């Protein structure tokens, strides 16, 4: 919207502001500092009131561009009146020779509430110190008012010379706008810039701007579908719109994008889309600055809800207000991408015309296109697929799908004209095309391509084809999930999952996924696996469980894609159970036989097991950067191998007692270099759970560790081992057993800022605890990680020995960590006696916070429950912690009243974050008596296997 169409009169009383300034001058404030001090309250009041009014008007009309232009207008008036004051009182002759101009976004007449104010001061060729002092006065007033001002002071000659050398300066001058002062200088710069810079061709400028855009996108993850996007710098954000503005202004010599319609570059519909996108993004950006009170460009979770409410979004049955807002945001950024393609196509057509004097063979060669083998509809134009003629899609709509198939086969990029033609032909994708056997055959070939299927699917999605061809997919395009765990929108997640599957299929990342790479060639139903990976989250956003609804969608789409009934059922089962393997691996004790037998009962066949493993890996990898790690891979491999044994009939039938005895003998034999006495002592230190679940290699390390501690007279000792492959660091603690030992260790880890991934808890036959805590690795370099782990060990030792009080160190950590007010997770506690033959399994789900694990384990100790193993799992802001427990005599918890007490106490802990933070310390954490630890007194309970 043009500035003259916006109402500015109610924003700032310019006449009154001038009178107030004149009153200051009349009072005779001759000294510069006195005058500045007298003017500041006047300008601060005017600025604050004007911005408050701009915010009110944004709430009323919802127009981001109007808001940005209103704030720019107010800034213009403030600068003009300050400069008039300088001219009138301090430097009347010198200041009159200076031209004050706006550049950057401010130069376009738009300004966000917290944006920098970019100014270019133009001086005549013969300039004086007085002129620079006038500029300095203006800058100091702006700085004192709290504005961030970027500025440059140059002559016209300097601007022209620098514009020839530096693209950033050239861009700034391109956007220059006169504010006040001597207009003749800005007019001169504008004229010379057009005649000496712009008229010499736009190729270098366009290439530089598009190159900057690509680098910016790469830095931001090269996707517009990040759930916490950067509204200014991200893909499809305001900077991309500004890049289009720079290019069109430079190449077509226009001042307004509306002129692109007259030039035939954009259709009227596309130009309106341009306006709507810019207006929406400005509304979001202005709201972000108003809400945070600063120049915040990242649309983070903690402000998304408030901005959604401010922009008028409401909850719907299937989508919350914030999810509706974010979906709109991602669709707008997609529109920006479409506009970029259209404009680039037009620019390329302009630049592809032969230069004057280039004719004949050379001219024809430069524009030569060639037919693609086996295709009459498409041609290759400089490595990109293009249409042989404009009527291709009208004659045969199946060619819309075929274009992507042919591009994939030949490894071609897409000509912008072809993509533009697709965008304008989306109405041809109807039910008839969706049911067409050839179209579905081509799509399945694209999806299962041995080349780059994810790249092709992403192009289809960006062009709008994927959502039209598969309407169920269209429902989740640009859909975000309001959680810290998911980094991408649902459609981007699914395409990235296909990309992960393709990588495994090609044998990539064999070091990270050795088992999946080994199994992939033996998976018979390869097509079914690809379809399952693409569709596994297709029913997200529905009120029904997305796994169940997704299986139903798969049964509908499978036959359409040409899958056989057996394949369709496999796809439906994989989608229905796609979370099963991940949840079992991460939240269950994999050394408990009941875990494996229950899982095997659901999987039933090795073919399903193989496909589910690969799907699970792809799903986790596609969640976001850093979500996958070697520890999760190890858990999945362990579950796979244990289940494979059972499904193939190879599960050991030897009794638990016999296997434990054999393991004890194996340990004794492996200690053959030790004395007979030591071999006997240290091989008989452990109960069955330890002997059956700990690898012999680790048993040997532990034996050496315990013997060294005994020789050194250490009642308390720690040992560290890093594991870069699993991205885990092991901390093993040897200490006298204590009812709250795990709580104390967990609290010490939390105080040291480390994330616990798993806990292996054992008691030795002489009453000591041998606990191994697995923490997530933080540093890639082993030396750095070892230093960090030793810091954690010192914290554990200090707390256990009484040198530090746990409530104090936890409280310090809790204060340092920003409190999470953004997300809510309904506390849940589940108690089951069917998940294990020996233990009661307690699963706790809630909002993560510092010291939570320590608090939970304190409650379990208070309730006289013996923790035999624990699984600690974090999904973004949510934790799911699982504890395998018995009472103190080794029995399951079967009494309903006692179970109810456990649930109530744990829910209280999960809900008491507010109280804890207010108190400044977590509840219930008690350090053991340091004397007892040092003296090695017998524990008050044992965690022995009953």
Which labels suit this protein?
946 residues; alpha+beta; Beta Polymerase, domain 2; Four Helix Bundle (Hemerythrin (Met), subunit A); Hydrophobic Seed Protein; 5 domains; 8-stranded antiparallel beta sheet; 4-stranded mixed beta sheet; 16 strands; 56% helix; 11% strand; globular; disordered N terminus; disordered C terminus
Count of DSSP strands:
16
- The quaternary organization reads as single chain
The value of Rg in angstroms is: 34 Å
Order of strands in the sheet with most strands: 9-10-12-11-15-16-14-13
Q: How large is the count of helical segments? A: 44
Strand proportion, as a percent range, falls in 5-15%
The amount of helix comes to 55-70%
> Distance N terminus to C terminus?
78 Å
Keywords: Hydrolase, Magnesium, Multifunctional enzyme, Nucleotidyltransferase, Repeat, Transferase
GO molecular function: [protein-PII] uridylyltransferase activity; phosphoric diester hydrolase activity
Catalytic activity: [protein-PII]-uridylyl-L-tyrosine + H2O = [protein-PII]-L-tyrosine + UMP + H(+); [protein-PII]-L-tyrosine + UTP = [protein-PII]-uridylyl-L-tyrosine + diphosphate
Family: Belongs to the GlnD family.
List the helices and strands and how they pair.
Blueprint: H1 14-26, H2 32-61, H3 64-90, H4 92-95, E1 99-102, H5 104-107, E2 117-123, H6 129-144, E3 149-155, H7 156-165, H8 167-174, E4 177-181, H9 183-196, H10 203-219, H11 238-252, H12 259-262, H13 268-292, H14 301-310, H15 321-352, H16 360-366, E5 370-371, E6 378-381, E7 384-387, H17 392-395, H18 398-410, E8 413-414, H19 416-423, H20 431-434, H21 437-447, H22 453-462, H23 465-469, H24 471-474, H25 490-505, H26 514-519, H27 526-535, H28 546-561, H29 565-576, H30 580-587, H31 593-603, H32 606-621, H33 630-647, H34 656-670, H35 676-683, H36 688-693, H37 696-711, E9 717-723, E10 728-736, H38 741-751, E11 756-763, E12 768-776, H39 782-800, H40 806-816, E13 828-832, E14 840-847, H41 852-862, E15 865-875, E16 878-887, H42 896-911, H43 913-919, H44 930-935
Parallel strand pairs: 2-3, 7-8
Antiparallel strand pairs: 1-2, 1-4, 5-6, 6-7, 9-10, 10-12, 11-12, 11-15, 13-14, 14-16, 15-16
Helix pairs in contact: 1-2, 1-3, 2-3, 2-6, 3-6, 3-13, 7-8, 7-9, 10-11, 11-15, 13-14, 13-15, 14-15, 15-19, 18-21, 18-22, 22-25, 25-27, 25-32, 27-29, 28-29, 30-33, 31-33, 32-33, 34-35, 38-39, 38-40, 38-41, 41-42
